[in-house]
Structures are given as C-alpha cells and as structure tokens.
Amino acid sequence: MRHEPEVPVIFTPDNEPYLGRGLLTAFDQLIVCCLENNQEIAHRTHAVANKSSLQEAACILIPQGVSLALSIRELVRQGYLLGAKVLMRPLVERAVTIMYLHQNPSDLAIWERGWLWNERPGLAKMLKALVARTSSPEVVRQMTAELNSLTHGDPASSYHNLTFSDRGNPGHAVSKNLSRPDICDAICAEAIPWLSVLLGMMHATFPTIDQQESVH
C-alpha cells in the first residue's frame, strides 16, 4: 500500500501549500512594507489634535483594509482560497471608499452621517468616478460582477472552490483547497493593488511636513 502523507491541520510559513509562488511572495513583501509604514504613520495620527473629516475616515477605513488584507493572506496560507476570495469585496470597498472620499470631499458629510446605505454612493458608482478618465464602464462592470458573484453565491462563484481529486474528477471543496495555484495567484494579483492603494492613502491623509510643503 502507498502511504499518503497527512495534510497538516495548520500550515506554517515553512510548509504552506503555495509557498514560493511569485505573486504570493510579492504580496508578502508588500504586507511587510505596509506594516512598517503603518507603524511610522500611526504616530502622526496620534499627533494630530483636530483631525479632519477625511483623516477620521482614514483612521477607520485604512486599518480595517490592512486587517482584511492580512486575513486574506492567512486564509491563503491555510488553503482556504474561497474565503480569501470572498474577503476581497470588503477590502476593495474600504480602499475605494477612502480614495473616493479623498477625491470627492463634498461626500464626507455622508460619511459623517454614518455612510448610510440609502445615501452613500455604491461601489460601482465610486469606481466609475475614480476611473472615468482611464477605464471604460465595462471594466468596472466586470470587476464588480465578480465581487458580487462571490458575495451572493451565484453559479459563476463555483469556480473559486473548484478542486480535483487524485483521479482528476472535479468537485467543490468544503475545506482546504491545495491544488489550485491559479486561484492563489489570482487572489494575490487582486489584493496587491488594493493594499497598495491603502498604503498610498496612509501618506496622502497624514503627510509629513516635507510632503505638505511639496504640495504647496
């Protein structure tokens, strides 16, 4: 009889299933950079006595977004690719929202009122406003369609937990999915730019004195 090695209950950074993949390594490097910058910028946030409305929003949205990115990374480490992909929507929401508020300060009043669902701009509307000069509405539609699919569980979402047995038979994973490096790569490729947005918005909302002077 052939002895099949047991799959660890919990993976560590030394034995995780997708270790060494290029996009995963890039995601890790960006996480380290983001956390190092956050540690430094956090001191600035505490030094500002009277924060602007944008800064107040940033102090909520950016840490939440970074935390979601770290959650996505840990789920990838443990092989829970569907869960990692589902968390992409709230990560995108936070990155897009803080970027949108930065570019549309008139809507900060909506944020201060609680960002209520019946008056805040939807994700698609914010994305269209942000990329109006560089992308077509169809690009936004495709982006939000996949995020909505994963949130609501329509048939198209089935791709993201599709797995294959040793004999090549397809099925849908209920636990760890250790045989889909393509999904791992796609998750990292999607998370990297949004985490980069959060990193950029840290500096945009809490600039150093030198950065402020360069703007003026």
What series of H and E elements makes up the topology?
Answer: HHHHHHHEEHH
Helix content: 55-70%
Principal-axes shape call: globular
Oligomer state of the chains in this structure: single chain
How many domains, as an integer? 1
Classify the beta-strand content into a percent band.
Answer: under 5%
Give the C-alpha Rg. Answer: 20 Å
Quick take:
The chain is mostly helical and 216 residues long.
Explain how this protein is built:
With 216 residues, this protein is an all-alpha fold. It has one domain. The chain contains nine helices and two strands. The chain has helices spanning 22-47, 53-77, 81-86, 88-103, 108-112, 123-130, 137-152, 181-205, 209-215; strands at residues 162-164, 170-172. Strands 1-2 form a two-stranded antiparallel sheet. A hairpin with a 5-residue loop joins β1 (162-164) and β2 (170-172). α4 packs across α6 (123-130) and α4 runs parallel beside α8 (181-205). The radius of gyration is 20 Å and the shape is globular.
